[in-house]
Amino acid sequence: DDADLWYDGGGSSSSSSSSSVLFLSGDLPGFLLLASAATLAYSPIFSAGFVWDDSIITDSELVQRWDGVYDLWFRPSNLRNEIHYWPMVYTTFWLEYRLYGLEPFGYHAVNLALHVMNSYLVRRVLNKLGANDSSSWLAASIFALHPARVESVAWVIERKDVLSGLFYLLALVRHPSVGGVDEEEAASASSSSEAEGGNDKRHSAKKQWGYVRAALGYCALGML
Length: 224
Fold this sequence. Notes:
The protein is mainly alpha-helical. 64% of the residues lie in helices and 0% in strands. The protein is built from 12 helices and no strands.
């Protein structure tokens, strides 16, 4: 059942477009096309380095030390030249430093990957709000390629934008009240369960609360 929260297991896009499932199997070709277009548009970032405030990463002992992740969460004042509390953001930098040091390619690639996922989630949110497939894919494409997103994607330290955007969009997709369709499904399951001993009703309620808890968790992560 938990897997159903992430992937529709082969269901059609039209039948699941308003559900709280994150990825629809029928969307794979469109997702690959969206990812390819965004990668092509942002390809110059792969040869770019660190600039300006990226020095918070390159000069940070907390990002580079193995035990620095503790300070990122519980002693944020030890992070020099940073007045904000963004432990989740800097933890991603800490993890990346373990993988490829201060090679900028990897940091740029992660920003782009997050942006591509956000662009797809724009489609999913619009689906839940009632937009048809054509409109939601168009909106996702505009979001993916619009010049206003360049700073957040190309500038490594702006990871906070694409990462918080990911969590908030996930919350919107997950929450059953967005679009209102999941409530209808729950009501249908509830009425049919009266003749089946209430098992379906309890299962539906548990699933709905699972969506709500996930949405609240994503909102909390988006603030970090």
